[in-house]
């Protein structure tokens, strides 16, 4: 976290005294943006601190205009990618400038440890599953902890409905590299109707860009174990997702539509141009 941003906030607050109404309004807008960016930086940093794969490292975060710049040193490219995925999962962060460097000394000894590759794979699975849950319109607000060991993913936390619990399990199971899912989510019926209403209100109020939707649909298709996402083109216009390209079966086409429909902000899916190879 950068002290300069804290200093800027204090300076902006003091500087508002004695300004004209127009200048004060502009200064207030700048301060609001700085506060929002500071909160985003804190959210990213906290997520890193709580992640057992990343908390051993010192990673600096600086957020400006929705772009998070990450600097520091990690051991492997897996941890570098993991940090990027986690930062992208923070609300308000739409882009990551990943300047994390790899530790050359660790690279030399990594090949001598046979279990290292599995640890990296598990770290990737945790990041991927967590990202898919954050992008989903039905699981984004749930309190879910994801852990992976030897390809077995365990979900802990709570879900508002049995349907939400089942969806979380399916999202994890349909992730490439996941061998088994242990779905330990508990279902709390208390205030579920109020929670659903709040989630709907949050979704309506959220300004989700077409570019954000396109990137998350593409990533979700690529992460799927049952789809070749490279053969599917995604385009989004005003929340309507258009899929084109080729799939191998009607089941794959249906899965592609379901995957896209589940992403936050998607108003509908047009798959008329998604052809089935004969």
Describe what this molecule looks like in 3D:
The chain has 278 residues and is an alpha/beta fold. The chain has three domains: 1-112, Histidine-containing Protein, Chain: A, CATH 3.30.1340; 114-206, Histidine-containing Protein, Chain: A (2-Layer Sandwich), CATH 3.30.1340; 210-276, Histidine-containing Protein, Chain: A, CATH 3.30.1340. Helices cover 48% and strands 23% of the residues. The strands form three sheets. Strands 1, 2, 3 and 4 form a four-stranded mixed beta sheet that branches. Helix 3 (77-88) runs parallel beside helix 5 (116-135). Mean pLDDT is 77; it is low at 6-17 and 201-206.
Record the SSE blueprint.
Elements: H1 3-15, H2 21-50, E1 59-64, E2 67-74, H3 77-88, E3 95-98, E4 101-102, H4 104-110, H5 116-135, E5 143-149, E6 152-159, H6 162-173, E7 180-183, E8 186-187, H7 192-205, H8 210-223, E9 232-237, E10 240-247, H9 250-261, E11 268-276
Parallel strand pairs: 2-3, 2-4, 6-7, 6-8, 10-11
Antiparallel strand pairs: 1-2, 5-6, 9-10
Helix pairs in contact: 1-2, 3-5
Helix content: 40-55%
CATH class of the largest domain: Alpha Beta
Low-confidence residue ranges:
6-17, 201-206
Question: Based on helices, strands and strand pairing, what is the structural class?
Answer: alpha/beta
Strand content: 15-25%
Order of helices and strands: HHEEHEEHHEEHEEHHEEHE
Rg calculated over all Cα atoms:
21 Å
Largest sheet composition: 4 strands, mixed
Q: What value does the average pLDDT take?
A: 77
Number of domains: 3
Strand count: 11
- By CATH, the architecture of the largest domain is named 2-Layer Sandwich
The third-level CATH topology of the largest domain is Histidine-containing Protein, Chain: A
Rounded to the nearest angstrom, the distance between the terminal CA atoms is: 54 Å
How would you sum up the global shape?
A: globular
Number of alpha- plus pi-helical segments: 9
